[in-house]
Amino acid sequence: MGGKGKPVPAGAGRQAPRLKAPKPKSLEPYALIPSSFYDDGPIGLCYFDPKLRYIDINKWLANINGVAVKEHLGRTIGEVLSDSAGGVEQKLRQVIATGEATEAKTEEARTSARPGIKRTFQHHFFPVKSPDGTVVGVSCAVRDVTQQQAAVADVRDTGHLRELEDQLAQSEAALELANRDLEAFSGALTHDLRSPLLIVTNFTHRLRQTLGTSLGKEDAADLDRIAAAGRHMMHIIDDLRDLGDVSRVEIDREVVDFSRMGQEIIDDLRARFPSRAVVFEAEAGIEAFADRRLLEILLINLLQNAWKYTGPRADAWIELGVVEDEYDVPIYHVRDNGIGFDNAEGETIFEVFERLHSRSEFTGSGLGLATVERIVRRHGGGVWADGVLGEGAVFRFTLGSSATESPEG
User: Fold this and answer.
1) 219 and 259 share a domain?
2) pTM
3) For 365-378, what is each residue's pLDDT tens digit?
């Protein structure tokens, strides 16, 4: 053949006039196309003989391989590309054995031309046959599909992102529905359950007054137990309502005088229990940047606990204080010299309805410390407790990274 064109097997490769390996005569009948298209087209083209030796290769693919065109001719692919020839050789032998075209899966590789860059290539292999159908060679087309693969990945990522967005929207809708159910439940606690309990406790009190001394000791004790159970249930309802409110309300931080808030809560306890003589110590000027209403619920629960569990002691004292850790994060604490607890049980005391003592020993709903934990968590902080049986307990907590950061700061 002349040097102005190259034969092309049906649908794919072509035969070059520039051959140093023996040229199969079976390639000569293929149509000719310009050499410039063959050499400069944005696709790799090459031919192999049955012994897997390069018969021809265009400049594009030679540049990708990082080896000159003339260094390919007459050599096997294993001799030219020893590191990445295995998969291609397998496909070439398959085409020679079956006489059928095949497409290799996309493969990632680092070529000699760009050793530091991983590219993705796609190979197509076509048999070149003699008139009698004998396979006398294989034409190969190689495409660099790196950008296409990246575009597909972007599309998949976009689709995955949309899927995640849909899932998030569904979760938000479910959360909104759950919050509405929780609000309805809170309303039921506040009204529907409190009303019958008020009837029970009020009529019990009225019956106690009406019957007066005519009641026997057992009957009077029974009425007292009914009234006490009603009051306890009212306490649980109030605490459940607080626990639900804590989970729903938006956090509205402001600078709160923690020392003053603590003193006001202790003053209220002293007014309700005038027979108790409890020493209260609070550092002056303790401040926190937190939601005022939630912080008050937190401190009421902690100080009421301390007040309750120091009950058996004649020299009871309660301390409210704060220290800063090595990162200048304030750690607040409520300490007392009450009955304490075993630290082995310390991890469970913040769970809902978890109690370390029976209700006959100390009253309570089992919800106070769970509410404290939830308030602290809503502020992005942490809470933990340490106790010594018979000596007292200390509850420490933080209120998140912005606990002391006022809007002006």
Assistant:
1) no
2) 0.47
3) 567 788 888 889 88
